[in-house]
Amino acid sequence: MPTINLQNIRQSEGLMEDLSEVRSKLDQRINLTDYSINQKPVTLNGNKIMRICLLAGLTSQEHRDLSTIEQVQLSKTSNRIFENLFTLHNLGLVYSGLLKLRYRGINIDWGNTMLKSKIINAEILRGARLLSNEHISEEWLMNTLTQSGTRAGAIPFLKLNIGNYEDDIPAYLNLNGREVTNTQIIIAGSTGSGKSNLLAVLINEIRKRSIDSSYPVNFLLFDYKGEFSDPANNSWLSLFETDRSSILNPIASPLPITPFKDFTGKTQNEINLYSTELANAIIAIDNARMSANMNNRLSEAIINAYRSTLSKPITFELILKEYTKLQPERDQVKDDSIKSVFKQLIRSNLFAKVDTIDLIKESYIIKMDAFPKDGILAKAIVYFIVSKLNMIYEHLPKQLSDEECVELRHFTIIDEAHYMLGFDNKPLRDIIAVGRNKGISIILATQNMESYKSEYFDFYANAQYPLIMKQQSINDGVIKDLFGVSGKDFNEIKEAISGLQKGELIIKNPTAITLGMGKKYKKIKVSHLI
Questions:
Q1: Rounded distance, CA 224 to CA 501, Å?
Q2: Which of 212, 222, 264, 337 lies 20 to 30 Å from 308, alpha-carbon distance?
Q3: What is the DSSP letter of 212?
Q4: Phi/psi at 161 (nearest 5 deg)?
Q5: Rg value, the chain, Cα
């Protein structure tokens, strides 16, 4: 008899809530009472608790009844159990064998995905009931036998299932296969198109497929609308294998990093180059007209600030002080546009003076909804944090690879990204350049397709997956550039975009584009998650 196919298994309705009690009991059992400053409690993620419960359930010799199995209610939102739950440590054959053993004598159509999903969920819930018994859970936790396999400890394959094509075939985005040129994702969709749900699906897939591995992929999300950091949406956080400790709110307390580079042991030329880049960024963030003298004075002030700290990280206060000293004496008591920007940054107290977190070793959500989206403070937060990420990336070794895929380390996710694309945003461009060999990537979401192509950078040309959702207006030039089409093909794609409904998107069809025949796009109905 062939092996049971354990793909596209749906979750039962409220499964994670049903597992909350046993999850809490196991968490309490494996954690210490007290921790040192540099340590934190262990938390069992959703995949681990489901896997533990499934194995526990399948070891039980309880009688299986098909009529009881049929009563299991599958998720109304079609949430799937991720494949790596079954593939980790090459246990797929074990699950298949145990399922056939436990259901021998019962006429089961193992090709029936719905029935198979109900059986898997029933076994997970059975295991949860067993592990609620303290004696049984103790036996499981104290069992030191291990299962090894060729993929144990391997780089996780991030083949994201984001929904279904029109013919109900699962739609996947391959992020880290060896043949994939880069991992950048850009999303264009108007308000109400389903961008937030798509972002949640992407994060959920990335985390679930990597969190159990030796190479978990973390993320940093700039939450412009405040949806992901809203206490009313706390349930979303468990989908990303995190909790409210991941939320950084610069209104409540300074972001726990210094945004400035440390040039200890570096050359003066490096400081000079950085001062010019930083001065240009301050000017661009404000969108104000500034004279060449003001720009040069700001660059010199940054250099002097580093001189006063002996090349250690500087502060906004110190730059303002040095800038004022360089002004003519009669102007030092007056505010100009540069001093106004720095005083806003100082009053807002956005950043700490030292780093107390590592932005890529954990996942974080930065709450941004208290700031005007196109204002100085919002732009400064994103600019300086992305710049900080680049500083961290510089010191990372090259990403690892194996026969199947390459390592991914981190995703920077910017919702409402158009506010950061209208000026020469060097840190954002650098992420794309550095990310190709460091396992770093970005997901950008904006309202209009044309936002991604400006005089400064063509994000379409550098994105592996442009995902186009419902648009308020359609830019003909972008369609032609993105899909390389004209005539009938162009009209067909434009009509497809016009007809998109909430939660739908189109994506390039590289096979058809290469062959020069067939539809140059595919339409995807995104899974509903939030």
A1: 23
A2: 337
A3: T
A4: -90, 105
A5: 26
Confidence grade of residue 147 (pLDDT, cut at 50, 70, 90):
very low
- Indicate the length of the chain as a whole number: 530
Q: Which structure tokens are listed for 58?
A: 């399948």
What pLDDT score does 256 carry? Answer: 92
| Nearest partner of 113 among 15, 9, 11, judged by Cα | 9
Closest CA to 323 of 279, 387, 381: 279
Band the pLDDT of 290: cuts 50, 70, 90.
low
| Burial class of residue 12, CB neighbours in 10 A (0-12, 13-18, 19+) | buried
Looking at per-residue pLDDT, the higher value among 484 and 113 belongs to 113
What pLDDT, on the 0 to 100 scale, is given for residue 39?
55
Tokens of 417: 């990204």
Instruction: List Cβ neighbours of 14 (8 Å cut-off, separation of 6 or more).
Output: none
Q: How far apart are CA 380 and CA 358, in angstroms?
A: 19
pTM, to two decimals? 0.72
User: CA 15, 17, 20, 22: dihedral to nearest 10 degrees?
Assistant: -40
Contact assessment for residue 16 and residue 46, using Cβ atoms and an 8 Å cutoff: yes
Rounded-to-integer distance, Cα 518 and Cα 485, Å: 12
What domains can be seen in the chain, in order of their start residue? 9-141 (no CATH), 182-254+358-516 (3.40.50.300), 268-348 (no CATH)
Query: What pLDDT was estimated at residue 40?
Result: 56
Tell me the mean pLDDT in the region 323-339: 86
- Strand positions, DSSP E, 189-254: 218-223, 247-248
Q: Does pLDDT of 285 surpass 60?
A: yes
Residue 86 corresponds to which amino acid? Answer: F
Alpha-helical segments (H) within 287-411? 292-308, 316-326, 337-348, 376-394
Burial state string for 168-200 with b = 16 or more CB within 10 A and e = fewer than 16: eeebebbbbeeeeeebbbbbbbbeebbbbbbbb
Token pair recorded at residue 405: 């895929």
Apex CA 299: angle with CA 298 and CA 300, to 5°?
A: 90
The two tokens of residue 322 are 């040095």
* Greater model confidence, 30 or 393: 393
